[in-house]
Write a structure and sequence with these properties.
This protein is mainly alpha-helical. The chain has two domains: about 1-65; about 80-255, no CATH class. The chain is about 85% helix and about 0% strand. It is built from twelve helices and no strands. It has helices spanning about 1-35, 40-80, 85-100, 100-115, 120-145, 150-165, 170-180, 185-200, 205-210, 215-235, 235-245, 250-255. Helix 2 (about 40-80) runs parallel beside helix 8.
Amino acid sequence: MGEFLSAFIDVVIEVALAVTPLAAVALVFNLKFLQLPRTQSRSLFTGLLLTALGTILFLYGVRIGFMPAGQAIGRLVAASKPWMLVPIGFILGLVTILAEPTVRVQTQEVARVSGGTIPERLLLFALAVGVGAAVALAMLRVWLGLHLLAILIPGYALAFALMFLVRPAFTSIAFDSGGVATGPITVTFIAAVALGAARAIPGADPVIAGFGLVALVGLAPVLAVLVLGVLFRRAEPGVEGAQKEREERWPTHSST
């Protein structure tokens, strides 16, 4: 009990040090420049308080649950059946993206701004499969000791080649998706699994093999969305025409 309480206090202190400057800046700007009505000021600082409480609970859960569980899974699987890291990695990458809140926001915004031309579920499925494949490849890299550059350089070369085959809107969405996919759930849990596996494989350097997964996860959505863009260009004329009408509007309204 004492260990959990100590970890909770450490998290509270960390979040307080991070949020207090933001709250101070908001207070100064409100008093000197904005001078918001009292109801809006209360809403602003209530939001800051809820953000701080949510961050405390999330980081505390990561510290006592997510990271230890992820490292234990990676260590146990790598010690008994290392080849199982690949299918397990695919499943973990798939379900993690489905639970990632930033990905949900991205897919909803794309569907809204595109007028439904790119359905939310279709984009979410493409991102989930892409990240699942990337995590599986990352686990294969941990198991076999593959060089990170041997994956990243061809991957980005393919991404830049696909850019010339899709509409500009898909390029913008693709690279934004790469950023939102590397959210808090993916980084905390999947990275912990890779690090635990790297520690259990004989001869593997945890620093070299256990890290680099986030880079692969960031690349996977880019490729997934660009491939989706290629498929859209090959789709029926009706979809092509609807997409062309919104081409100029998407890049200026898309958001992460």
